[in-house]
Amino acid sequence: MSSRHTTTIAGSLIAASFSAVMILSFTAVADDQGPGSSKGGKAVDPAPAGVKPTTTLPGRISVDNSSHKTSITATVKNEGTKESGSIRLLVVGFDGLRIKGVQGCSAMAEKDLPKGSNSGFVCDVGNLAAGKSKSYAVDATFDLSRTGKICLPVQDSSGKKTFWQQGPVPFGASNPSPNAPTTPLLLDTTNKPVSPSGDELPRTGAGSDLLPLGAAGAALVSLGAAGLWWTQRHPRRQPS
Questions:
Q1: CA-CA distance, 116 to 92, in Å (whole number)?
Q2: Are 151 and 162 in contact, with CB atoms under 8 Å apart?
Q3: Residue 60 and residue 32 in contact, taking contact as beta carbons nearer than 8 Å
């Protein structure tokens, strides 16, 4: 990892310039995805007055036991009273969860991926009116013999400020079945991989701490497997 250019998720995840190597489009979304959940989400840098970006992930997804393929809907919303201005959404995968494509979004070059992640896409959300949302179909794989997490930061268009970050939160199951055609996974649950020797997935949901990162250009830092972020500049914030 020392030879790679690391990128900040909380505070300033990505430097202002990055390599957008491809644009992929995927439309398939799992039929059994439950209602959206903002579990594991925290406000980070202060958003402009009247702007309140948030994100949601499905509470439930299914993973094909043979191909490991799954589809996830990532939604960004402005819950404030004013237009958001130009913002972007990042979709980043960790460990056994790998992002293969995000509808209408640009893949991050490997050298620009956040430290500890295996894949990532940048979505130019644009200007969201108050109360409006925008959803993205995420094509991914989940290795059932491992653990896996996903992270959704919402930034200004330059990537210098992160107004909101959901995760990294796990999709997991306490007792996945290796014989079923698909294995249901629930957001923010402890995962026991199919393989007998698999470790439990650490929890990083609503009870975890997320602190904003410091000045622009600082590196994303992972606290062990929990995937928490910290700062030297801002105090801890909670969503209002």
A1: 10
A2: no
A3: yes
